[in-house]
Amino acid sequence: MVLLTTKRMEKVINCFKRQPDAVARLICFPWAGGGSIHYARWGNVLSSSIEVFAVKLPGRESRAKEPFFQNMQQIVDEVVGVLLPLLKEKPFALFGHSFGAFTSFAVADALKKVHNLEPVHVFLSGASAPYSEMRLKAPKRGALTDDDFLKWMTSIGGTPPELLANPEVLKLFLPALKADLHVVESYVCNKPDIPFLSCPVTCMDGKDDVPHDLQAWKEITTGDFTVRMLDGSHFYLKDSGNEKIILNYVTKHLETAEMDYL
Q1: What pLDDT shows up at residue 4?
Q2: Does 240 qualify as catalytic in the annotation?
Q3: Annotated catalytic residue: which of 98, 125, 128, 132?
């Protein structure tokens, strides 16, 4: 049974550095079409007080032969099913960028409403709240032709132009991206009647990205709500300077949260 659980864990979670004595865990959710490596390597950078779990979705990396998920509930069910015992052990936080912000929200919602578990902090990046007017009116990208899709990808930055010009790379990359966009664009949720969280929520965004309704995320918590704008566009978090700012911020808040948790 333990072996089976470990195998399921390794399938869904990428953890570069196990930290058995960590005071908190940071669960990271990929952006659309993204893998787990960007976040998993944070485990090598952050102090031993934080253990980083990067979520691996089907259809990419070691799960390349698995079919893509079709809806948000499948992601929530798998992540919660694998992580639930571990999330009961010690404090945890969630981090998600763009599509990952939506999956962070959906997982936090399920953990609280179904299991009465709450993160000590939620970090949401590069996305309007899913129930906001700005998000509901946003153009749908998943149905674009490949040519128009590539023009959009070029415009938001974050993907090297030489990759976008390589047909072999695109053959691997585009299906995952479009599958994730299908999930996010078909994801519907209502604005919470009352906040379902009490933990702090921090929203981050690139100053040069298209505008997002970050303030609407305030509706999910009665706790502290902070917005931080960093230099750059949609993939501002890939910049090494910004990454250092983000990781310092996350570390400070998780180590402080541990004291509050106790």
Answers
A1: 45
A2: no
A3: 98
16-64 per-position pLDDT tens digit: 999 999 999 999 999 998 999 999 999 999 999 999 999 999 999 999 9
3-state per-residue secondary structure call for the chain: CHHHHHHHHHHHEECCCCCCCCCEEEEEECCCCCCCHHHHCHHHHCCCCEEEEEECCCCCHHHCCCCCCCCHHHHHHHHHHHHHHHHCCCCEEEEEECHHHHHHHHHHHHHHHHHCCCCCEEEEECCCCCCCHHHHCCCCCCCCCHHHHHHHHHHHCCCCHHHHCCHHHHHHHHHHHHHHHHHHHCCCCCCCCCCCECCCEEEEEECCCCCCCCHHHHHHECCCEEEEEECCCCCHHHCHHHHHHHHHHHHHHHHHHHHHHC
Catalytic residue (one of 121, 212, 234, 253): 234
Whether the pTM exceeds 0.85: the reply is yes
Is residue 115 part of the annotated active site? The answer reads no
